[in-house]
Specification:
heterodimer; A: mainly alpha; two-stranded antiparallel ribbon; 14 helices; B: alpha+beta; five-stranded antiparallel sheet; four-stranded antiparallel sheet; 15 helices; 17 strands; disordered N terminus
């Protein structure tokens, strides 16, 4: 990690955030990027909001914490052999640890705002953590087993011949919805739920802080999609094209898939989702670990 | 002050209508709100009402228009501005996708205008109801200041003097201090010490009122004693139709108590100045009004023929589709929103004017297409409705969110006196069309289901939309070729009193004319019952499920019969 690394990560976050926002429009059938730029300008032109009943520290810290969580998660994504942010031996754990901070950030935003529906939004996301956190943790363990490492680059390198999605299909099926929930994407956007909570936990933000939240959400989407591409789709491996381009294409494909799925499914109800998570994804995650161990013993040793 | 809004529809060249026109004779309803108050409807609500753009609130002193005005509307905006009296205001609605000239350039609004003395407005405000410039957030009793961010539109309005001088900087641009405000509906007074909740930047999702109380009282269903949260949704910017107000007490995220109020109304009118009391069922009310006026010996109203039947049925189709689209929005199901919108699109005016580049979002519904265009529009609508039926047919996605929600026992529906699709979804075969010989000739069969929940109401409305489209086509094929059977004179309710009833999209609509005093009265049987049933069905449900329950009743915000 060099001195330039933080700047590179921020640069990737800024450009990637814009591209994710544009991709949202593309998936919706509106290709023009101009409204994205206009929306950014309009948001930043507005003053920072100060709700009448709010906890100053929680309210104003939440957007920064959310963005920080997204940036740290993004920094663990291996984009290309020579282009990665933080290449730690426990990089996958750092990724999981970073996205774990999304939960307190959202809760702080909802609680700090002090509005009835904002608080409900914050509590909803707190409850949702049970549904997504355990599958993510267990799936990361499963995909690390064949590489005998939790370093993301090591997991990518072991996929040179066969992507992990083929070896461990259950793991990817569990991982993608879980990280969609972390990234507050529909149909898991129950903390915001514009039509139900009118913005929920983030309803009362304005101006720069609203812009930070919007950026943080896109950075989170980029981070979880990038990590999905790295852990399951072979990362930068692919014929003809440069490695970084392959990684970018795979990441964009995962983002598009997530956005497309969000348009095709109604939003989940929190009580039913948590109940479902206890009964299906969490037990299946244990099965995914067992399957990961089995394929490691059979094919990777 | 009265705020009217003018709808632009096909055949009108983008100009505001004259204020004193008998609206019973035209297809352009005006939204008029009494009680010396005014309501500001925002973009999505306006589209729901079929408005192309709000140009000139006739009778008021405010102009509401997109912040950037498309070229096709520039002249109309300028004309509407000229129609307003001298002490006029303007409010710019944010329209993110619109390209055009800035509103303030068109109006010739200058920085000097923004320096109007604050006290002027305060002096004009009777009873302190208007937004006082010297109050940072306006009057605490009036819930000004919504910043609505939802799916598909933004509508914002000004908050008194605080933003004056900053016009054009943000998304709300304000002329001189506005006298347009959203009155707080009657309700419980705020708790002592409750904070002023007037900040425009933070008011979203209707009006949330946090009422912190000591944690005491009966335990919830999970055994915990929870702190209750008071939430007020509406009258604007929520998933509910603009004008509908829900006051909810949440126990955690479970609805402990709920009341609903339809807060919009139009004053009673005479036969000479007949106004439609609910613009959401315009064709049905016009049909009922025409029928009862035709019973007057010297009556000039149009006979109830095939064309008027087709209009009523097309309106029913459109109303149910708009509701389906709103349900999709509530569920966060964009595919359903798009499918519902696609089915509506043949009847949306496609002129490149109004809000948004996507012209279909900017113009009102039109049921007066030329014959050739109407045929193709009906064919396309049938095709789109079939696609919608395939989407919703056995959809687990739909049933997961709607089955069992808002379930109401048949006995309760009967006892309450519910009508329309809500009653038919509970198994009651109540439909005014059943006794109409015109419908009998078209082979009409009333659609009835028995589950009486949100899922049943969804399927019933979809089936009714398809049936109504079929009836419209059949009626239009007969138009001009064969005479419609005479449905007979309106029923004689009493000596010298005639009553005509028509099945509207949400239930029967009833116009009563008293020959003696020439007074026209309106009633919507079952409206109060459905408000009550919807509120009761929400109690005990988790917040999301409660909203599905309430929305499934398709309540009108227009209170009829006051």
């Amino acid at each position: 990690m060099s001195v330039a690394t933080p700047f590179a990560i921020v640069g990737v976050a800024a450009v990637g955030g814009f591209l994710v926002a544009w991709l949202e429009r593309l998936v919706a059938g509106r290709p023009s990027p101009v409204p994205v730029l206009r929306s950014i300008a309009v948001t930043l032109a507005r003053p920072i909001a100060t709700p009448p009943t709010y906890d100053r520290w929680l309210f104003h810290l939440a957007p920064s914490l959310l963005l920080l969580a997204g940036l740290v998660a993004l920094s663990t994504v291996p984009w290309a052999p020579g282009f990665r942010g933080i290449d730690m031996e426990s990089g996958v754990i750092l990724f999981a640890g970073a996205i774990a901070y999304v939960t307190p950030a959202v809760f702080m935003a909802g609680w700090g705002a002090g509005g009835g529906l904002s608080v409900v939004g914050g509590f909803r996301f707190l409850a949702l953590m049970i549904a997504y956190a355990m599958p993510i943790a267990m799936v990361l363990t499963a995909v690390g087993a064949p590489a005998e490492s939790l370093r993301p680059t090591a997991i990518v390198e072991i996929q040179e011949s066969v992507p992990m999605a083929i070896v461990q299909p259950l793991a990817v099926v569990l991982f993608v919805p879980a990280v969609m929930a972390v990234a507050l994407l529909p149909p898991f956007d129950i903390a915001q739920a514009p039509s139900e909570l009118g913005g929920g936990a983030f309803a009362r933000y304005g101006g720069l802080e609203a812009g930070i939240i919007a950026l943080a959400q896109r950075v989170l989407v980029l981070a979880v999609a990038g990590m999905t591409a790295a852990l399951f789709l072979g990362g930068w491996y692919g014929p003809l094209l440069p490695p970084a381009l392959w990684m970018a294409l795979k990441t964009a494909g995962v983002v598009a898939l997530m956005l497309w799925a969000g348009r095709r499914l109604p939003r989940f109800e929190i009580d039913r989702l948590v109940s479902f998570a206890w009964k299906v994804p969490i037990p299946l995650s244990i099965l995914a670990i067992a399957w990961g161990g089995l394929v490691t013993l059979l094919f990777y040793r | 002050m009265v705020l009217s809004a003018v709808r632009q529809r096909l055949g009108h060249r983008g100009h505001a209508t004259k204020p004193d026109v008998d609206r019973s004779e035209q297809a352009i309803p005006s939204v008029v709100v009494p009680d010396e108050s005014a309501w500001l409807l925002w973009g999505r609500d306006l589209r729901r009402y079929g408005f192309a753009a709000v140009l000139s609130p006739l009778g008021a002193r405010a102009l509401v228009a997109p912040s950037r005005v498309p070229d096709g509307l520039v002249d109309a905006v300028r004309d509407a501005w000229r129609l307003l009296p001298e002490n006029r205001r303007h409010i710019a609605l944010e329209a993110p996708d619109v390209d055009g000239q800035p509103l303030e350039d068109i109006l010739g609004y200058t920085a000097e205008d923004a320096q109007a003395p604050a006290d002027d407005d305060a002096e004009e405000s009777p009873g302190g109801e208007h937004g006082h410039a010297d109050h940072e957030h306006g009057n605490g009793a009036s819930d000004e200041g919504h910043d609505h961010h939802g799916d598909g539109g933004h509508g914002e309005h000004s908050d008194g003097g605080r933003r004056r001088g900053r016009a054009g900087r943000g998304r709300v641009s304000v002329g001189p201090p506005p006298d347009v405000y959203v009155p707080r509906p009657p309700g419980p007074a705020p708790a002592p010490g409750a904070p002023d909740r007037g900040d425009h930047d933070v008011q979203r999702a209707g009006d949330e009122q946090q009422n912190m109380m000591p944690i005491e009282g009966d335990p919830s269903t999970d055994g915990l004693v929870m702190e209750s949260i008071e939430v007020e949704l509406g009258p604007l910017g929520t998933v509910l139709p603009g004008g509908l107000v829900a006051r909810v007490t949440l126990d955690g995220d479970v609805v402990a108590d709920c009341t609903l109020e339809a807060a919009l109304s139009i004053p009673r009118s005479s036969a000479a100045t007949a106004r439609v009391p609910d613009p959401l069922a315009f064709a049905a009310w016009r049909e009922a009004t025409s029928a009862v006026l035709a019973s007057v010996p010297e009556g000039q109203a149009a006979p109830r023929g095939w064309a008027s039947l087709a209009q009523v049925e097309l309106e029913r189709t459109a109303s149910h589709l708009v509701w389906l689209r709103a349900l999709g929005g509530l569920l966060g199901w964009v595919e359903l929103v798009d499918a519902g919108h696609a089915a509506l699109s043949p009847f949306l005016d496609a002129r490149p004017t109004g809000f948004g580049r996507r012209a279909e979002t900017s113009n009102g519904l039109r049921f007066d297409l030329p014959p050739g265009e109407m045929d193709s529009a009906l064919a396309e609508a049938e095709y789109r409705l079939e696609a919608l039926r395939r989407l919703l047919g056995d959809s687990r996605r739909l049933s997961r969110r709607t089955r069992g929600r808002g379930q109401t026992a048949l006995a309760a529906v009967e006892a309450a006196g519910a009508t329309g699709p809500v009653a038919r979804a509970a198994g009651l075969s109540v439909d005014e069309r059943s006794g109409d010989p015109r419908y009998a000739e078209l082979g009409f069969v009333s659609v009835v289901r028995h589950e009486s929940d949100a899922l049943a109401r969804t399927h019933l409305r979809l089936d009714e939309a398809r049936e109504s489209l079929r009836l419209s086509r059949a009626a239009l094929e007969r138009e001009g070729r064969e005479k419609a059977p005479d449905p007979g004179p309106p029923a004689e309710a009493a000596d010298g009193v005639r009553r005509a009833t028509v099945e509207g999209p949400r239930g029967p609509v009833q116009a009563t004319l008293n020959y003696a005093d020439d007074e026209l009265r309106f009633a919507a049987p079952g409206q109060d019952a459905m408000l009550d049933l919807a509120a009761r069905s929400a109690i005990g449900e988790e917040w999301s499920a409660a909203l599905v329950a309430v929305v499934s009743f398709d309540l009108s915000p227009w209170r009829v019969g006051l």
